[in-house]
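Here is the promised in-class demo. Please do not try to memorize the tokens; focus on the logic of going from shape to residues.
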């Protein structure tokens, strides 16, 4: 046996998504735990600016980004208003990835899209576990152990049921699309649940759409932001394939009082 054999180096990506922000020490503590267990882990920040306790937005962001990471990436998503309660700490193994976080739906959109292979209730954790910081004490160590090649079955017990969120869809009837707002980005652009396929039933680029909801909006349907004049309200298909409302050089969400979860009706004016 060659005792001088080069040791295996585990340089697995661990991607973090939280609502912790960057002002406090919370994210750094999670990274410290991960790197203490596996100093070779590659820790990547997705975002820590999910609105506080906004499980839906966390789930949507995770679904939008996970597929661009290398196979085997471990995602840790901590948006956890139920921390310290009986909600389970969850590990989902999918066809290509691992997802770690609370069993409140934040993992579900991404994991279901990739295809869940197995689910576990995490039992591995730090020796002392607080009731308010499972990101540090439960989820970070589980991700770190996974990055060392430890089997998920060694970290917890199989789970049969876990919480799933359902993404809203648009419905076309009587010449209109009935949809919901689902996400607002930092530019104030508003994603709706209507897809490019949905919109084809209704309009073509150049048409004007009337959007009825908290406000009545007239938006020209364009192919890209660059076709809008400064201050003009437009609708377009964004990079995720959803119909988006935007104001060139402005903020559509603030201007029209839009936020995720609102019902809207879209028709051609």
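The designed amino acids, position by position:
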């Amino acid at each position: 046996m060659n005792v001088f054999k080069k040791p295996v180096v585990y340089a697995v990506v661990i991607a973090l998504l939280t609502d912790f922000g960057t002002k406090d020490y919370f994210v750094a503590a999670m990274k410290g735990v991960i790197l203490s267990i596996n100093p070779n882990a590659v820790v990547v920040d997705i975002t820590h600016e999910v609105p506080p306790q906004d499980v839906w937005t966390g789930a949507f962001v995770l679904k939008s980004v996970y597929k661009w990471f290398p196979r085997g990436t471990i995602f840790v998503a901590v948006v956890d208003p139920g921390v310290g309660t009986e909600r389970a700490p969850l590990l989902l193994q999918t066809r290509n990835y691992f997802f770690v976080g609370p069993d409140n739906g934040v993992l579900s959109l991404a994991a279901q899209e990739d295809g869940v292979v197995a689910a576990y209730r995490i039992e591995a954790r730090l020796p002392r576990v607080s009731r308010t910081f499972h990101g540090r004490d439960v989820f970070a160590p589980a991700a770190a152990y996974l990055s060392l090649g430890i089997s998920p079955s060694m970290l917890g017990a199989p789970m049969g049921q876990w919480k799933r969120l359902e993404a809203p869809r648009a419905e076309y009837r009587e010449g209109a699309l009935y949809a919901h707002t689902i996400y607002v980005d930092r530019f104030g652009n508003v994603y709706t649940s209507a897809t490019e396929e949905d919109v084809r039933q209704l309009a073509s680029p150049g048409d004007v759409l009337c959007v009825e909801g908290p406000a009545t909006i007239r938006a020209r349907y364009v192919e890209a932001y660059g076709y809008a004049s400064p201050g003009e309200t437009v609708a377009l298909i964004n990079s995720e394939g959803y119909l988006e409302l935007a104001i060139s050089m402005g903020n559509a969400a603030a201007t029209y009082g839009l936020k995720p979860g609102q019902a809207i009706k879209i028709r051609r004016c």
